[in-house]
Write a structure and sequence with these properties.
heterodimer; A: alpha+beta; MetI-like fold; five-stranded antiparallel beta sheet; four-stranded antiparallel beta sheet; B: mainly alpha; 12 helices
């Protein structure tokens, strides 16, 4: 019979070949994390938003506090009338002024008022030597020729000077949005970081030491968790005054309770395992066991809790800003921008919707990443 | 069981004591007294004012004085409005807030539980997807954004509902949705996952094997256990509605306690801040305790520590 299969000599190295490379814990988490499209989308959005907030302000020619009272409340998409010079356009502001719009969509000067014809319900402006009339007898207001009463043809165009429009003080919303996102993210990250450190230390000590220490420390946590935290954040803000540092301190000092509970729970289940016993047998100190053995093992649940904590910090910051206890103007956060915009919601809804949309995007992104991380770190939880 | 409740009550008292102490300390460590203002007040007048409000006494004496007042249900006078006491604010504002809160709570329960059941029963189908999409949106969007968008659409654009006030039943619609949006979404998600978990258990298979109809299986057998996690979070939900009402009352100009609180914060009306904080905290602790009692009565598996 013909030999179909030829036998090769085998070596030890060949035997190794069938084994795949060992995946590290992080690699394993990444493998499961990237399987989830929503989690990846959330992650990408967060990276983009961070870039937007960090690098965006370098590319804009305005600052968050630059006021230009000539161009107040101008929306991103404007309804404009053709100017009599045949090139540019005219835009009617809400305070019944007329702004010249260049052909490329950038904003020019405000037209000077010549006189008002109250009986005809008209205000006459001077447009490069030609007189144009703003007729305010009926809504929507129009621009017409005073003599012939012919309304100039209108069109809509994008605002190229202020891509997202301007607010009630003539500040560029895009620039403020960048700074606002920056501050909101900064507050959230720092608050989450501070809470993580306090929570890990508190929960770690409580869970590892056990006994009476544990009981007393957990009783304290029980009492703190019955206190409505929103009220305490507000009280701390009242105590420290408005400002970025007081928001960070207020948020950083109240949200560690959940973290402490999570870490304690992990400590309790981990400290009875053999590797801790082994570490103790070779004479490791409590500090080493806690910092090098127990906490790294609990890192999964800690990370999940942190990613869930960031959205609640952003929520809280927006809430404070909206209620009017937060940053000192002209500093902007997403919450204060929403608050500023409520006054003229009826006429300029875009001023509210833009920062609101930003808050929602951040919240979605962090929630998705949090969900993805939870599933990736703890496959047991997955249904 | 009674021992457990007594213990919980004791803990509540301790928590309340610390809340009062902490609030008192925070309010008294703010630099400047309540009568420090831009207008210079002569030293005699300030001394007289301090004497009137007992502010010249040592701090611990002031504290026990205040504590005694709180225990008698007297939160002292408002510093900002002469002749008004903090009790007046609470008496005026709380009924309004409470009415809004109760209506919202009913709305939350009536909306979230059926939504959760629907999503769990139609697990993986479009109904499930729709409920989960709505619930995800509700959890991620702050109440003030929901409120503003609702006002813009239903009041400004469509002119169907009033923008402020709760004089008519129509006035309640938008505030209730804005206030309850988060809780509805949260509870619906919780209801769905807990019902799904229960539906996988053996006793449900037994119930089905007996030939019970699916409706009976779900409502009689599964719901009883699936509702327990939902009941646990009712306490925090009340807390959520309470603090959420700060914003919602402000937007819709509802003269409730939340608006008073926010105003007193921006006016630095210290006694009102203290009084309302303590009132809120007491109310919340009481709600959480009531929920706990219910929880123990409903679930016989609970062990009392």
């Amino acid at each position: 019979m013909e030999q179909k299969w030829e036998l090769l000599s085998s070596t030890n190295e060949d035997r190794e070949k069938i084994w795949t490379k060992n995946r590290t814990f992080a690699g394993d988490v990444w493998f499961r994390f990237r399987r989830k499209p929503t989690a990846i989308a959330g992650f990408v959005i967060i990276v983009l938003l961070v870039c937007f907030a960090v690098f965006g302000p370098f590319f804009t020619k305005y600052s968050y506090s630059d006021q230009n009272l000539e161009v107040v409340n101008i929306p991103p998409v404007m309804k404009v009338y053709e100017a009599p010079d045949g090139e540019g356009y005219l835009y009617i502001t809400q305070s019944l002024k007329v702004v010249y719009v260049n052909p490329d969509g950038t904003l020019g000067e405000q037209l000077t008022r010549v006189r008002s014809e109250d009986d005809q319900m008209m205000t006459i402006f001077d447009c490069n030597g030609t007189e144009v009339a703003l007729y305010y007898g009926q809504k929507p207001y129009v621009i017409a020729d005073q003599e012939t009463k012919i309304i100039y043809p209108s069109t809509t165009m994008w605002n190229r000077s202020y891509i997202l429009g301007t607010d009630a003080l003539g500040r560029d919303i895009l620039t403020r949005l960048m700074y606002g996102t920056r501050i909101s993210l900064l507050v959230a990250f720092i608050a989450a970081g501070v809470n993580m450190v306090i929570g890990i230390l508190y929960g770690g000590i409580s869970g590892y030491t056990g006994g009476n220490t544990d009981t007393i420390m957990m009783r304290i946590v029980d009492i703190i968790s019955t206190i409505p935290l929103t009220l305490y954040v507000i009280l701390i803000m009242v105590l420290m005054g408005n400002g970025l540092h007081s928001i960070i301190i207020a948020l950083g000092s109240v949200y560690w309770v959940d973290m402490a509970r999570v870490v304690r729970g992990q400590m309790l289940s981990l400290k009875g395992q053999e590797f801790v016993l082994a570490a103790r047998t070779i004479g490791s100190s409590t500090k080493t066991i806690l910092l090098e053995h127990l906490i790294p093992n609990a890192m999964g649940s800690i990370l999940v809790t942190v990613t869930m904590l960031i959205p609640s910090a952003i929520f809280m910051e927006a809430f404070l800003g909206y209620v009017g206890i937060g940053l000192q103007p002209p500093l902007a956060s997403l919450g204060t921008m929403c608050n500023d915009a409520t006054a003229n919601l009826r006429t300029c809804p875009y001023q509210l919707f833009i920062p609101a949309l930003m808050i929602c995007m951040i919240m979605f992104a962090f929630n998705f990443v949090g969900d993805g991380l939870r599933d990736a770190l703890d496959p047991k939880l997955k249904k | 069981m009674w021992k457990y409740f007594a213990k919980r009550l004791g803990m509540m008292a301790v928590a309340l004591f610390f809340i009062i102490l902490l609030t008192f300390i925070i309010m008294h460590s703010i630099p400047g007294g309540p009568f420090t203002s831009d207008r210079k007040v002569s030293a005699e007048v300030e001394a007289a004012l301090n004497a009137k409000y007992n502010l010249d006494a040592p701090l611990y004496e002031q504290f026990f004085d205040y504590l005694g007042g709180v225990l008698r249900g007297d939160f002292g006078p408002s510093y900002e409005y002469t002749g008004k006491s903090v009790n007046d604010f609470i008496a005026n504002g709380f009924p309004v807030s409470a009415k809004l809160g109760v209506i919202t709570m009913v709305f939350v329960l009536l909306a979230s539980i059926p939504m959760g059941i629907l999503a769990a029963v139609k697990n993986g189908k479009w109904q499930d997807m729709a409920v989960m999409a709505v619930a995800t949106i509700g959890v991620t969007i702050p109440s003030f954004v929901i409120a503003s968008v609702l006002i813009y659409i239903f009041s400004f654009r469509l002119n169907w509902l009033p923008t402020y006030g709760v004089d008519t039943w129509k006035g309640y619609i938008l505030p209730v949705i804005a206030l309850g949006g988060y809780s509805v979404s949260y509870l619906a998600r919780l209801m769905r996952s807990s019902l799904l978990e229960v539906m996988g258990q053996d006793y449900i298979r037994t119930a089905r094997a007996k030939g019970l109809s699916e409706t009976k299986v779900i409502l009689r057998h599964a719901m009883r256990n699936a509702l327990i996690p939902v009941i646990t979070v009712l306490g925090p939900t009340v807390a959520n509605l309470l603090t959420g009402s700060f914003v919602v009352e402000k937007i819709f100009a509802i003269p409730g306690l939340g608006v008073h609180f926010v105003n007193s914060v921006s006016q630095r009306d210290y006694t009102t801040i203290m009084g309302v904080t303590i009132f809120y905290a007491t109310f919340l602790l009481a709600m959480i305790f009531i929920v706990d009692v219910f929880y123990c009565l409903i679930d016989p598996r609970i062990k009392y520590e």
